[in-house]
Amino acid sequence: MNMTKDEIILREAFDALAENTGIQASYRLMSFKSDHRLDAEVQIIINDTVLRFAADVKRELRNYHLRELPQTVSDLPLMFVADRLFPAVKEELRREKISYLDTAGNIFIQHRQIYVWIEGNRKMQGEKKQSVNRAFTKQGLKVVFLFLCQNHMINMPYRKISDLAGVALGNIPLIMEGLREAQYLLHLNDQDFILNRKKALLHRWIEAYRDILRPSLHLGNFKSTTPDLFKERLMTGNIENAVAGGEVAAEMITHYLNAEIYTVYTTQTSKEFMVKNRLIPDEKGNIQLYEKFWDNYSKDGRVPELLVYADLLITDEPRCLETAEILYEKQLKHEFE
Fold first, then answer.
1. Most C-beta atoms within 10 A of its C-beta, which of 133, 157, 290, 294?
2. How many structural domains are present in the chain?
3. Of 202, 167, 331, residue with least CA distance to 254
């Protein structure tokens, strides 16, 4: 039986914990009615004491994840189980007394007179790679983006999905299978599907978009000799074959953020865009140009709200994270919760 990505992370973490410390742990995948973003109930035995946690399982934990979840769910304390935890995130978790475990066997628990803090373990090199889920490859992410923006597309003919996402037809069945294996698609009846665990899928998409798809779309950074005019043109939809993303789009939607970085998605080449808009290449320039990877559902000269949200979270900048929360509450929450 194929394991889900959550099960893979949990088993690797528990195996490393047992190998390094002798501490035994087990899990049970389940849904929490009080918070559907949580994934499993975890049981850890330390000195004959059984500790139970509600676990949020992630490939990688970022600062914005910490802003979303309460420390307790009913009578269970929260634990993050992740493949990768950054030092600054671990420090923040310890400060808030939130338990964590990673797949190298590093662990922190401060609960019911039990205090455990083990750090410094590294994952063994040369471990066997798990098979890649095709839903979270470059092509798969384009399809998932289509589904997240237009849920009904999951039940369209594969050729229609292929055409709208700009992905080869032969990839679509593999991408659909990847979503089913990860439990993000559920059968509604014999023919139709519905998206499952939509907020978890959203954040899985954002993480993979940041690491896999977005870097491949980057066409370069630029600066303008008339930055205020460029921003005005971008916000009013007066730049040919281009739409605003990131901070500029967030300013357009929320009127809360004063954009400093101008993220632009375009169907033009970088040279065409640079020449037509009289820009100067600059590695540290505040105009960040990306290839537009979707079709037919931009809004009022800007990218869809979902991509604005992703662009903001990816920055890890406090002012952008705050705006992302406002955007989510006003524009996205009703779709994902």
1. 290
2. 3
3. 331
